[in-house]
Amino acid sequence: MLNDIREVLVSEQEIEDIVDRIAAEINEDYKGKNLLLVCILKGSVCFMSDLMKKITLPCAIDFMVAKSYYACTESKGEIKIYKDLDIDIQDYDVLLIEDIYDSGRTLNLLVNKLKERNPRSIECCSLLDKPDRRDPNITMQLKYVGKNVPDEFVVGYGLDYDEAYRNLPFVGVLKREVYDK
Ligand code: IMP
Ligand code: MG
User: Fold this and answer.
1) pLDDT for the residue numbered 120
2) What are the start-end ranges of the E strands in the chain?
3) Percent of the chain whose predicted confidence (pLDDT) is above 70
4) Can you say how many angstroms the Cα of residue 111 is from the centroid of all Cα atoms in its chain?
């Protein structure tokens, strides 16, 4: 696995620092609220489990699997939910936990869909952000971002290429020859 990594982009230590910083902000911002952390599977599994352990407020957790589809003739995409929340979010301040904010399309469609269920509030937190790749039509800002990364394909700490590399403890850039073959 390690042979396929060109460069470590976010080390284990840096991930720990990011998690500590974001958890401290959440602990401050969500005082007196009814926090629900939603892990967007599968990529956010490591980030979610590390982050929730550093949150000192009472909170509920839930999981979702969703994918977006864009027909080439349309700019408005569709989102398909493969695994929905178990919890009714009406009484919750929802915080979606993502691995990476890329074009931004999936997360935007998901937030709009969940807003229809009238949560008290809904915000997003992403470990990584690739601002250079953002769809210019998407203006939604994340409340919490771990680190901005360049426009490279990254894997590890939950992020995959074809379901591999999720179990690397750091985030690294995948060598081009791995996915060009
Ligand atoms: P988008 O923001 O709708 O374009 O899609 C974001 C999703 O694409 C993320 O949740 C990831 O699952 C996946 N993704 C985007 N960039 C990368 C990457 O560099 N490595 C692994 N997965 C990625
Ligand atoms: Mg993925």
Assistant:
1) 98
2) 5-10, 35-40, 59-69, 78-83, 93-101, 121-129, 144-148, 154-155, 171-174
3) 97
4) 12
- Read off the pLDDT of each residue in 110-121 and give the average, rounded to a whole number: 97
The residues near 18 (Cβ < 8 Å, ≥ 6 apart) are: 10, 127, 146, 147
Give me 75's structure tokens. 């700019």
Active site residues: 102
Among 46, 100, 127, 148, the mutation site with the greatest number of ligand 1 atoms within 8 A of its Cβ is 100
Q: What angle do CA 17, 13, 146 make, to 5 degrees?
A: 40
Task: Decide: 103 in ligand 1 pocket, CB within 6 A.
Answer: yes
Separation between Cα atoms, residue 48 and residue 61, nearest integer Å: 9
Distance of CA 142 to the CA centre of its chain: 10
